[in-house]
Design goal:
With 420 residues, the protein is α/β, with parallel strands linked by helices. The model has no long low-confidence stretch (mean pLDDT 95).
Length: 420
């Protein structure tokens, strides 16, 4: 069997490396020495792979050294592809990973990309980097493929092996090889596409579709708020129809749903098309943090509270429930807007790593909120620990006229003062 190197050991790369490591020689490569040392000790701070799963991956090793991957024949790239401050694709990590691989690329080698990109990026951006750095010729000396990641952080039911895998290759023979490679670990099966561009496009529209559906729910929630109707009660009623899609309003963050649409719109504009619907959905979702903060301030004013100096507790900082992932969390938009109003904001999260919160956002997480100290409490993330709490437990943290904002709609109808 060919030896595999997985480049980037985050939420995507480590589960993939562990799955392959049960069957074949795999080297997990990451530029973070700290990450490599933790994995050598059997510790995964992302909580995606357990110590037992790491032990079962008996053919898996870890390195931060270029020499440690030089004897591999297949390189799988799973580095982050975020957006920059102008909401344009940031391919810095992808290009650097390609430069790294180019230094060890040998004739006959195969490079597979899993990172989210716009259609055409693998062949138009990554392959030229590989050619320049290695001196090899694409589809003659080395080959490429694209197989989009479908990891769902915090989801213990949908794991890498039981999620169907889309595959593609730069030639028909390579497409078959890549498909067979993944079929060896994916019990749910594979779907081989006719080209790399098709696989790239499939990835970005998966999350663009979800983004637009959530944007519709967010817009409906703003309309229903003006009508004095509880959005979640409306959705519960509408869901009694068999083909109603169960999307809910909320903040859209993370490394996929809030990012991928911008990769597609970037490419669309590059070829002369201005996407109206996709960007409209993005505008709605990008503005939900400030909208939620303003809704809370209005509710506080109605109770007679002074907003300047008001103490607000935000419960949850992760971008989604039951995981420590802080990437692109939109909770920070709520915090920033409340601070603009003059509020003093404390943040707690039973999943997030305090060191990461401090490094990424300059936020000091509160270890244990004090009861009776807050003018408002916001349930911002639906962690299972919060869902297990009774409404009275949240109200114990409030002052007498405090406002309980159930942003995620996890409490029974009528038990919170405000819902999104």
């Amino acid at each position: 069997m060919k030896k595999v190197a997985v480049i980037g050991l985050g939420y995507v790369g480590l589960p993939l490396a562990a799955a392959f490591g049960e069957q074949r020689a795999v080297v997990g490569f990451d530029i973070s020495s700290k990450r490599i040392n933790e994995l050598h000790d059997g510790i995964d701070v992302t909580l995606e792979v357990s110590a037992g799963e790491l032990q079962r991956a008996q053919h898996l090793s870890f390195t931060d050294s270029l020499e440690g991957i030089r004897d591999c024949q297949i390189y799988i790239v799973t580095v982050p592809t975020p957006i920059d401050e102008f909401k344009s694709p940031d391919l810095t990590s992808l290009i650097k990973a390609s430069e790294t691989i180019a230094r060890v690329l040998a004739p006959g080698d195969l490079v597979i990309y899993e990172s989210t990109v716009f259609p055409g990026a693998t062949e138009e951006v990554c392959v030229p980097v590989l050619e320049r750095g290695s001196g090899l010729v694409f589809n003659q000396d080395f080959y490429a493929g694209y197989s989009p990641e479908r990891i769902n952080p915090g989801d213990k039911d949908h794991r890498i092996t039981n999620i169907k895998k889309v595959t593609s290759g730069s030639t028909s023979a390579i497409a078959d090889e890549i498909d067979a490679l993944y079929a060896g670990i994916i019990t749910a099966g594979t779907h081989k596409t006719s080209s790399i561009k098709v696989a790239e496009a499939a990835k970005v529209i998966e999350n663009t579709q979800r983004d637009l559906n959530i944007a519709l729910m967010n817009e409906l929630s703003m309309i229903f708020a003006r009508l004095g109707i509880d959005t979640h009660e409306v959705l519960a009623a509408a869901a009694t129809k068999w083909n109603f899609l169960p999307f809910r309003p909320g903040l859209v963050g993370g490394h996929c749903i809030g990012v991928d649409p911008y990769y597609l719109t970037h490419k669309a504009q590059a070829v002369g098309y201005h996407p109206e619907v996709i960007l409209a959905g993005r505008r709605v979702n990008d503005n939900m943090g400030p909208y939620a903060a303003a809704a809370l301030v209005k509710a506080m004013i109605k109770t007679g509270q002074a907003i300047a100096g008001a103490r607000v507790l935000i419960m949850g900082l992760a971008f989604k429930e039951n995981c420590p992932d802080l990437r692109n969390t939109r909770i920070v938009d709520v915090v920033a807007e409340l601070e603009e109003f003059g509020c003093e904001v404390d943040i707690s999260d039973c999943w997030a790593d305090p060191a990461q919160a401090r490094y990424e956002y300059g936020i000091e997480l509160l270890a244990e909120p004090e009861p009776g100290q807050y003018d408002a409490v916001v349930i911002a993330v639906a962690h299972r620990q919060y869902k297990a709490m009774q409404p009275e437990s949240f109200r114990e943290m409030l002052k007498d006229n405090g406002v309980l904002f159930d942003l995620k709609g996890i409490l029974p109808l009528g038990t919170a003062d405000l819902r999104l």
